[in-house]
Amino acid sequence: MSEIESVLKETRVFPPPPGFSELARIGSEEEYHDLYRQSIEEPDLFWGRVARELPWIEDFHTVLDWSDKPFARWFLGGKLNASAICLDQHLTNGRADKTAIRWEGEPGDLQTFTYAELHQSVCRFANALKARGVKKGDRVAIYMPMIPELTMAVLACARIGAAHSVVFGGFSAQALRDRIEDGGCTAVITADGGWRRGKVLELKKEVDAGIEGLDDVHTVMVVQRTENEVAWRDGRDVWYHEAIEGVSDECAPEPMDSEDLLFLLYTSGSTGKPKGIVHTTGGYMVGAYLSSRYVFDLREDDVYWCTADVGWITGHSYIVYGPLANGATIVMYEGAPTTPHPGRFWELCEKHGVTVFYTAPTAIRTFMRLGEEHPARHDLSSLRLLGTVGEAINPEAWMWYRRVIGGDRCPIVDTWWQTETGGIMLTPLPGVTPTKPGSATWPFFGVDVAILDENGVEEGPNQGGLLCIRKPWPSMLRGIWGDEQRFKDVYWSDVEGCYFAGDGARRDEDGYFWIMGRVDDVINVSGHRLSTMEVESALVSHEKVCESAVVARPDEITGQAICAFITVGQEVEVDDSLRTELAEHVAKEIGKLARPSEMRFTDALPKTRSGKIMRRLLRDVAAGIESAGDTSTIEDYSVLAKLRGHED
Ligand code: PRX
To answer: Which 3 state secondary structure label does DSSP give 134?
Structure first.
């Protein structure tokens, strides 16, 4: 791949507020650079020291074995238990009575758990699973709403050495079935239902349909949440509240080898079949622990809220394992961000005194569209640090987030990483890094990242290329479940000896990384390569545009043409003069070559349930073909139908 042309220029720089740096866990650039250098040049020393901050059951003898590339093994000889790291250590380090979870349901019901209480609940859950025959090495599917029992289920599996495979509660029965079958799960943990936008999501019903005829699934444990009626199969189905009745609240954590499987998490690739990403115990825990500590600058009195669902990697690493390993107080919320009113998130921040807030750009853009009056109704002065994850954040949204939510006082950490990386890879450190809106800035410790061409040659400043990682890192994926060859092909074959993330990126003259989107989202117009994200960002920087998705469609003359799907504010009139205005705006922001040759205005963009715009579908719509690929994750089919209808 020749270089990707980069055209987005952002010149604003925001140094960390001095008061923030003074108190931060890492407060000077010098300290960051020293630690970073050590993490790359002397990884055994660096990671050996960090890992030993956690309580191991048996110490490791070797930090890293990278002889069987691309299969890395970390902390060899070590034994540990992830649930003991999240819970047991806090019983004796002064945090037993500290709040671990502050949970709020969508209807407004509340529950809190101290570390001691969470420990007891997890032990009981673990014993109940054991009583059903679940044992070390088994795989357990978890398909639940965002209730405390979801976190408990995850930790209970870890406690007894069973790997969890959490499937996001918004997936269909078929998607759940595919994942259960692929992972060979023998038990499922679910709930009767969960609250979402004022309605009950009937999860048990989906499970029943999903496992029909799968005889290997011997147990379905059901948490009662919504009390809707559910079908029941005696012998297989068991109520959680009955299963934990009279059960001991002590359960010794199973000693796990550092490289024993901790969990599978399925993610989509460029082909239809989801990949079961394999994460093991020691390296993952060390990565989640360290990144939570430094990226979110966790302090003893923080109230930390990551708005992701535990069904995604962000929830695994930055709701459950990372924050709890650090003994943090976390907020968990069951429902939709705008239910029952558009200011729900800000109401929760105020009510729970949230200090560190981590969310997705798509949510931020939604709130921008809803208007500033909603956050303005709430006191957000407890916030001290903001984060984003999941996709590139356009500078306009970044600036809005900083001003409206962060009161111009909170640093923003734009964190780039993936299901596969297990933990944050590119990120500012909030007390150190001068941030630039839209850039994920610098590599985290141990991340040897470079922008390369396909021959492995490093690109110069501002030259787009392939985002690659040259050295193994502790929380990296260990493979794709049951498909060694696909693991090698997908991640290790584009650039010799390197992990290729699938993203295009550039590094600017100051060494800042800018993610330019998936390389398959790159557009080639008349020999110019453009990142869809940059065109989108230009469009969204226009005051009338709320959100846009840009895709390529085949064009006889230019090779590819740019097709932009755009949502505008409700009061904006869509006509030819708007089209001209936006084309000129893009020409001004980027250049004439980036002007979309087609603009389609729509009420909403098709998104996955995790909020990612489904560009593959839009490419098909733009090209006028029916999508053949997997649409199982689409949030709202009517959006797609409307877009297609538009073609006629
Ligand atoms: O393209 C990048 C984008 O999301 C991809 C990873 O998606 P997933 O495995 O679902 O994990 C999301 C949560 C970690 C990446 O390859 N991505 C994620 N974070 C960012 C991002 N793109 C730009 N900036 C980010 N901060």
So the answer is: coil
For residue 635, what pLDDT is reported?
66
Which ligand 1 atom minimizes the distance to the CA of 517?
1
Q: If you search the block for the tokens 């990671």, which residue do you land on?
A: 47
- State how far the alpha carbon of 39 is from the alpha carbons of 48, 427, 430, 448, in Å: 10, 16, 19, 9
At residue 170, the pLDDT reads: 81
Q: Report CA dihedral (291, 296, 297, 303) to the nearest 10 degrees.
A: -130
Q: List, in sequence order, every residue forming a beta bridge with 211; answer none if it has no partner.
A: none
The number of residues in the chain equals 648
SS3 assignment, position 238: strand
What percentage of residues in the chain have a pLDDT greater than 90? 78
Q: pLDDT tens for residues 217-272? A: 999 999 999 999 999 999 999 999 999 999 999 999 999 999 999 999 998 655 54
Three-point CA angle 218, 223, 226, nearest 5° = 135
Asked if 504 and 467 touch (Cβ cutoff 8 Å), the reply is: yes
Q: Is 387 in the pocket of ligand 1 (CB under 6 A)?
A: no
Residue in 452, 586, 529 with CA at minimum distance from that of residue 6: 529
Query: Which one, of 146, 151, 141, lies nearest residue 117 by Cα?
Result: 151
What confidence score (pLDDT) does residue 4 get?
57
| Residue linked to tokens 């930790």 | 155
Atom of ligand 1 nearest to the CA of 502: 16
Instruction: Using alpha carbons, select from 448, 457, 564, 454 the residue that is nearest to residue 513.
Output: 448
Q: How many CB atoms lie within 10 A of CB 64?
A: 20
Could you give the CA distance from residue 353 to residue 351 in angstroms, rounded to a whole number? Answer: 6
Q: How far is the CA of 313 from the centre of ligand 1 (A)?
A: 10
Running DSSP on this structure, what letter comes out for residue 14?
B
* CA-closest residue to ligand 1 atom 3: 391
Burial of 327-366, coded b for 16+ CB within 10 Å and e otherwise, reads bbbbbbbbbebbbeebbbbbbbbbebbbbbbbbbbbbbbb
Question: For residues 202-228, b (16+ Cβ closer than 10 Å) or e, as one string?
Answer: bbbbbbbebbeeeeebebbbbbbbbee
Q: What CATH number is associated with residue 607?
A: 3.30.300.30
Residue 568 located in a structural domain: yes
- Pick out the chain residues at pLDDT < 70: 1-9, 268-273, 520-522, 524, 526-530, 559, 627-637, 645-648
Q: Whose CA is nearest to atom 23 of ligand 1?
A: 392
Label residue 441 left, alpha or beta by phi (over 0 means left) and psi (-120 to 50 means alpha).
left
pLDDT at 5: 59
Residue 499 belongs to a domain: no
CA-based diameter of the chain, in Å?
74
Q: What domain range is 636 assigned to?
A: 526-644
Instruction: Supply the pLDDT for residue 1.
Output: 37
624: CA distance to ligand 1 center in Å?
Answer: 28
Domain tally, the chain: 1
Q: What is the pLDDT of residue 102?
A: 98
Task: Say if 169 falls within a structural domain.
Answer: no
Helix 281-295 crosses helix 43-51 at what angle (to 10 degrees)? 90
What pLDDT does 640 receive? Answer: 72
Q: Does 257 fall in a domain? A: no
CB 633 near ligand 1, within 6 Å: no
**Structure confidence at residue 274 (pLDDT):** 76
The best mutation among 317, 386, 389 to test binding of ligand 1, ranked by most ligand atoms within 8 Å of the C-beta, falls on: 389
